[in-house]
Every structure is written in structure tokens, then in C-alpha cells.
Amino acid sequence: MARLPREEWYDIARDVDWDLSYVDYDEVFPEWMSGTGKVPREAWAEWDEPYKVTYPEYVATQREKETGAYSVKAVLRKSRVFDQLDEGWKSVAKQHFGAVALVEDLAAYAELRMARFGLAPAWRNMAVFGALDETRHAQISLYFPHELLGRDPQYDWAHKAYHTSQWTVAAARATFDGMMMNPNVVDVAVQLPFTFETGFTNVQFVALAADALESGDINFANMISSIQTDEARHSQQGGPTLKILVEHDPRRAQWVIDKTFWVSARLFSVLTGPAMDYYTPLAMRKQSFKEFMLEWVAGQFADQLQDYGLKKPWYWDEFLAGLDTWHHGLHLGVWYWRPTVWWNPQGGVSPAERDWLREKYPDWEDRFGPIWDVIIGNINAGQAGLTLPATLPWLCSLCQLPVGTAGSPGNQRYPVRSYPLSYDGRTYHFCSRPCRQIWWEDRDTLHSPTVVDRVLAGEVQPPTVEGLLTWMGLTPEVRGTDAYGYRWARAYPPGDPGPAGDAGPAGDAGPAVTEPSNGGRPVPVNALFAGDFVTQLVTLQDTDTVDQAASRIAAQVVGRRVRSREAGLVVRLGGRVLPGELTVAAAGIGPLDSVDVSWDAGRVGER
Amino acid sequence: MAARRLKTWSALGQLGRLPGEYEIVTHALNYTTRPGRPSALASNPTTPANMWLLTYRDSSPLQAGDWLGFRDPDRLTYRAYVTMQDQQETVVAGVLDEYGPARHDASLPSWWLEVLAALFTPTRFPVHALQMTSAYLGYLAPSSYITNCAVFGTGDLLRRVSLVAYRTRQLAEATDSAIGRTERARWQQDEAWQPARQALEKLLTAYDWGECFTAMNLVLRPTLDQILLHELAEAARDSGDELTWLLLSNLAADAARGIRWSTALARYAIEQRPENRDVLRRWADRWAPRAEAAAAGLGQLLSGVRPAGAAERAANSARHEVLDRAGLA
Ligand SMILES: [Fe+2]
Ligand SMILES: [Fe+2]
User: Fold this and answer.
1) Neighbour order of strands in the sheet with A522-529
2) Does residue A547 belong to any structural domain of this protein?
3) A62: CA distance to ligand 1 center in Å?
């Protein structure tokens, strides 16, 4: 006898709400967790998942997928595929495992929260599959890299990353906790399955699967394609929730989407952007990050918003403009600060790669070319030490990524600068107006100290780059180095680009993260040197003259990322030029101020 | 200098032996429990979600030096779980085919159909309540080893609701009974169900993870499942309803697995900190009267098919046996 078709009994399994008699409704579904807000309780009865699946169907499909994924792995185990993989590509995989494996597990808690506090039984049932799926993703994302541990200790970070305070992890934790764990479940459904999974994980999984296949990493491609098939199913929890929310509270729906989309876009620019446009070997790249984002994220997501009667986020133009710059700045930052990551970033700016970048991003050369030329010149002059960090970039108080990387050098519209905000007696710095605005609206939940804040609070001892690396959990053998040992830079003709000039007195990596060595009181400032791509934490002394302060700041940039010039320096605070002979204290420079230093052609020779 | 080759995660390195797949994919996954964290979540420590985790998880009276030492006796991984449950679903499909429900169900006497209408088909409601609570336990558990047991357990409960829904539809079609029309009313109004409903509604608000675990897995489930799975199954077999007997027996294997890890976790907690015995016992004592009342109520629904008081007694002794296995006798 044939089994009953699903439609015959499916509705009975999700018709399981009843009227509570012995406890209050609000006790079982507290507003903090369930988050109905302006939506009348009865409205949730309409919740209907578009993609229906039963338990027997679920276990049958999933068993088949698991068998498939693990048997491909078993077959490849004895092959030499891994040894033949490009080092740049391996970095994509290492970065992905570290950034993703334990977030998959976090997503299981988000699903469990919906399975408990969701206001419709159909939703709660779907979330049970979601929790099982995410458990799968965490497990498969750990089992695959585990066998590579013996070959390369950086794979340890697939498991270790989220147990540390490494800075990209701190950024990701702030983003994901804010998306999955902090909000009530209505907001979780709009943020996680709708905005993040529907909007973004397509990029990470579809794009990387394509690049992985091209790069010959069949194992990785197999794993993430298999994961993506689950995502496609459980991300369907977002739509029905959003539909009900839009009907009763469109403003809340719009806000929750807007803020999530922005921080997700920022995070993807540090993870997926460099992976696609720099680490993946040139010959293997299918599409540029921008092309992919335009097609899969910007295009599809904007259409979806319209289908739900929502608008594009208010910052849409800024986001689109950012596809040309954000990930280039972030790649430069990750590469320059490479000892702070657990993978080996591929510089990715050989002459041939540079041609590709210029073709895909016509403004790339003007904006980032000059900095890379200084770096290439240093490498080829045997001064690779100048391409290593002695400071910390200032980190945005919302997205926790370097301030400056939401703009670019030579960019009138979105320059390299901080967007500060004074609140409650201190100054907070942001990478962009949207980050600042989101923080302002939701600071009671979203505020979380950045690595820079923790350095300033004295948590990192000693407060040097070495002390910071240890504090972030980066043991010497996993600290990132250039994936190709600078092979890409050596492809330039000798002497072209030429040397960057005098690197200045602090050119050797001194403890610039730290307090000044002697004398006055430390004044940590957020310093920008004109032409650089980030702002940095530089600690001045209140007894320094403004000219000395300018030199301290210049020493971290000139000859390292900005070519030296025969010119003096000028310091500005809030747009106002400060006299060079005044002390820092007398000039009014205080802790956490934004200080700008630039060349002053009128003061040639004084330096 | 070549770094020493890692054989497993650095976090698992102190095991002193090579971990198996189960540990590789289960160990220390929940970063919100990592040592040295400023707060569970990277956000203002006083957000409702942070306060919730602080109050109901991190400050629970049930404490252990190291929750990461606990192991599921079944060492279930996701792939082992879906493989096992797909096999069980195949068994269930085979049973359903073999009994050709239409003919089998039509042959059931009306007095027995009334028992099913009273005690079997309404269970989609209480089992859904357990499914919700089990999901909550997974969210609040202090280690991923415990969470994963709860996640698979939540899956089991959705399986059970699904099978009950499926049978509800079949029985409704094949018979003239009340099945398919009266489940919610029985659950909400039938006197015999009310103590169980009261216990489960209260369970939904037992937010301390340790109390939630104790109340559900060591007290209420052993009691309720003894009636809803075992006693009802025996009665079904005695009444010629082999199909119900076989299906419930299949579901009982899931419940038995739940008891295995739950009793192991209680013993582990006591091993970690002897004071935990009193903590667990206090909760068990608080919930036992609710379980007893539920057993007394549901036992009535079997009064025509089981000796007087037998189901209730069996339910209470099932609970005692579980508490005994948990080291709480
Ligand atoms: Fe996932
Ligand atoms: Fe930002």
C-alpha cells in the first residue's frame, strides 16, 4: 500500500498550538525572545513555509548527501590533490574554515531559539531542521580540515579561531552575535535566513565552489556545494516571517534588513573579497568579487526587497560604490598586517594580476597602485621588514574593521577618514556614516569593544605588536606570511617601481602600539597620514611638540606605504592647522582625537 | 624550526589519545562558553540575551569544572544520526506497508479506537511541547557535547509528532471514530490530560538549563513516555493492534537513547561536583509530584485495557529507575 502523500497529513503535524491555561502566554513567549512587537499574536498563524519537507524526507535526503560528501573525501584522501593545490588557494580554504566552522554551530543556536520561541508551530518545526542542518555544517566544516592538520598547523584555526580574540574573529563575532544571538527571533529570522543566508551565503558558497573547482580543490568544492543545498531550504524561514512583519510593522522590517545588510557587506569584503580577487590564482578566477556581488547580492536582493514592498537601504549608492574599493583596502590591510591572521594572504599584485585588477576595477590603479608600488619597491630592495606592521589600524566601533577601508585614497566621495562620534564622554570612531548611524540607533545592544579598545584599556600586555599577536592566540607557526614568498613582487623589472625613499626614524618595527618611552603622559590618537589607506592608533606624548607628533605619525607610513617627499608636515585637528612648535597638550590634542598629517610643500627642508 | 605536527585540534591535544570522529566534530563548538570571555555574546553585557545566558546558563545552580568532559554514550554525529533515523524510517515504512493500514485500521474495534483517540492521537500536542523544550535545552546547554544530544533529541520529537500526525490522518480516514477531530479538545479539556498539560506548560517556563534538563529528561519524560510509548504499546498488542504496538516500540528506541545520555550527564555532573547531587535532587523532588499527577491522570485513559493502577505504577517506577541510573536514588 502506498504511503500517504505529504499534503494529506503535513498540516496536522504543524497544527500543534493550543491555548495555554496554567502559565501566561508572555511567560512562555517572552517579548525579549519572541519579539512580536506591533504584530498581533494571531497574525503568526498565517506563517507558511514555501518549501515543505517531512522528517522521513529530511533524513533520507540528508543521509544521501552525507554519504556523497564523505565518500568523495574518502576517495581523495589517498590522492595527491592537496599537495598540488596553490598556496593562495589554500589560504582561501583556511580563512573560510576558520571564519565559518564555529559560526555554523552558532547558527544552530539561532535555529534552536526559533524552534523554541518562534510564534508559529510551522516555523518552529522548520527551525528544527535548520538546527540539524547547522549541526551538519559545523561538523563537516571541522572534519574536512582536521585531516590536514598534520600538514599545516594553520588548519588548527578551523576550530580555534572563535576561541580567540583575533581581530577578524572579533569583527565576525560582533556581526554574528548581533544577527543570531542577541535579537528576538523575529529579527533573527529577518537577519539570518532572509538577509544573510538568502542575500550573502550564496556568494560565499556558490562563488567559492566555482573557484575551488577551477583550482582543483574538489574536496572543498564538494563540501561547500553540499552545504549550500541545505541553506537553500532552511533560508526559507526568512520569507514568511518577513511577510508578516512587513504587513504590521514595515519600518522595523526595513531597519532590521538595512543594518544587517550593511554589516554583512562589510564582513564579506574582508573575507570573500580578498579570497576571490587576490588569493584565488588568476587563471582560476571565474568572476570578480564585484561582478559576483552585483549579480548575486545587489541584483537579486534588491529585487527581493521590492517583492516584499520594501525599499533599497538608504545607503545603497554607498554600498555599490564600495564594491570598487572596500575589499581592496581590506585586502591591503590583511596583507600588511599578515602576522595577525591564520592564513597566508597572497599579495596578488604581480604585473599580470594588476592588469586584471585594472580591467575589473578601472580606478584601482589610481587608488591603490601607489601604495602597492611602495610595498613592491621595498620588497625588491630587500627591505621586506618595512612591509610589516608596527602599529594597529584603528577599528570601527561597529563593524570592527579598519577605519579608512570604507573609502579609499584619492576618492573624493568616500575618502579615507574616520567618522567620529562623541557620546557619554568619549569619542568613538567609525569607518562610515552608516556604521555610525547603526551604532547610534542600536548601541545598547550592538556596542562591543574592539581590539583597539581592549589595547587602550590595558588588556594587552606588553602592548606591542608581539604582545598583541600572543594575546590574539597567534602562535609563531600559524602567523600569516606572504603565500608566495613575494614571488609576485619579484616579477616586476628591477628598480621599477623605485625605492620609496627614507622610511624615517621608526622604520624598524618599534613598539608603536604602546605608550611613549619616556616623559609625558600618553595621548593615544586616531592618526591619518595623507595618502594612506587606513587610520592608525599612534600614541603621542602630551609633551611632544606638534612637529614631533607629526614625525611619529609619519614614521609609521612614509617609506612603508606612502612615498617619501621633500616636504614638511602639517598637522590638522578638526580641519584646523596646528602650529608646529606648540606641545600636543597646548595644541588641544586629546586622547582618541582624529589627527590628520599631510605634506606641506611650503615647509620644504624643515623636516 | 619545524613546528611539531598536530595530530588533532590543539584544544583536544590534552586527551592523551587520538580522538575519534565524534570528538573531532563535537568538541568545544560553542564559543559563547569560551573561558575568559567578557560576556557570552559580543555586545553590551546587559542586553536581554546576554542576561538570559548569564542567568539561566552560566549562573545555574548546576555547575561543573569542565562540561567539555561529558560524552554522549552513543557518540552520535550528524551523519550517524541521519543514517540511523533513515534506517528507522525505512523500518516504519515497511511496517506501515505490511499492515496495509486501511484494512488494518478498519478492523480495529471501536472501544480500542476510543483509546487511541483519547491517548494516542492527542500526543502531537504534548510531544510538540517537549520538542520546544528540547530545542531550548540545546540552546542553553553549557557545552556542545550536551547541545548536540539535545539537537538530535529535538529531531526525534519532530519525528514522533510527524508519525502521530500521519497515523491520525490514516485512522481518521479508515474509521468512524472521533480521531482527527477531537485531539485539541481532549488535550485542552479532558480531565485526564490536565495534570500532564499543566506539567508541560510549566516545563516550558523552566528556564534554568539544569532545571529544564532535570525536569524534562529525568522526571517528566520517563514518566510520560512509560505510558504514552510503553503501556499504550502493550495495550495495543493485547488488543490486536499490532501496528500501533510496532510503531510505538520503534519510537521507544529514541526515548531510550535520550535516557542513556541524560542519565550519563547527571552522573557526570555529580562526578564533577558532588554538590550537584543535591542540586539535581531538589529539582527532581520539585517536579516529581507533577509527574505523579500526570501519570495518575493518563493512567485513567488506560483503565479499560490495563489492570487498575498498573500504568500509573509502571510510570512512577520507570521514573524511579531513571533517577536511580542518574545516581539520584
Ligand atoms: Fe549553515
Ligand atoms: Fe564600520
Assistant:
1) A392-393, A536-541, A522-529, A594-600, A568-573, A576-578
2) yes
3) 14
pLDDT tops 60 at residue A30: yes
> Which is more confident, A76 or A64?
A64
- A128/chain B closest Cα distance in angstroms: 6
Residue B176 domain flag:
yes
Number of structural domains found in chain B? 1
**Contacts with A89 (C-beta within 8 Å, 6 or more apart), sequence order:** A211, A212, A215, A217, A279, A280, A281, A284
| A55 CB within 8 Å of a chain B CB | yes
Residues of chain B contacting residue A153, judged by C-beta atoms under 8 Å apart:
3, 5-6
Shortest distance, CA B302 to any CA of chain A (angstroms): 24
Residue A229 in any domain: the answer is no
Domain CATH code at residue A535? 3.10.20.90
Cα A499 to Cα A374: distance, rounded to the nearest angstrom: 7
Going by pLDDT thresholds of 50, 70 and 90, the confidence category of residue A602 is: confident
Residue A124 has, within 13 A of its CA and on its CB side, a CA count of 29
For A444, the domain range is 337-349+363-607
Other Cβ atoms within 10 Å of B119 Cβ, number: 24
* Overall pTM surpassing 0.90 (yes/no): yes
The ligand that comes nearest to the alpha carbon of residue A418 is 2
Which residue from A minimizes the CA distance to B196? A22
Q: What is the ipTM of this complex?
A: 0.98
Using one digit for the tens of pLDDT, what is the confidence trace for A172-188?
A: 999 999 999 999 999 99
Q: Is residue B50 part of a domain?
A: no
Is the CB of B86 less than 8 angstroms away from the CB of A162? Answer: no
CA distance B307 to chain A (A): 31
Q: Is residue B315 part of a domain?
A: yes
Q: State the total domains in chain A.
A: 1
pLDDT digits (tens, 9 = 90+) for B115-155: 999 999 999 999 999 999 999 999 999 999 999 999 999 99
Q: Is A400 left (phi over 0), alpha (psi -120 to 50) or beta?
A: left
What are the backbone angles phi and psi of residue B247, rounded to the nearest 5°?
-65, -45
pLDDT number for residue A275: 94
Residue B98 sits in a domain whose CATH number is: 1.10.620.20
Query: What's the pLDDT tens digit per position in A527-551?
Result: 999 999 999 999 999 999 999 999 9
Q: Which domain holds residue B260?
A: 75-325
Does the residue B193 lie in any domain? Answer: yes
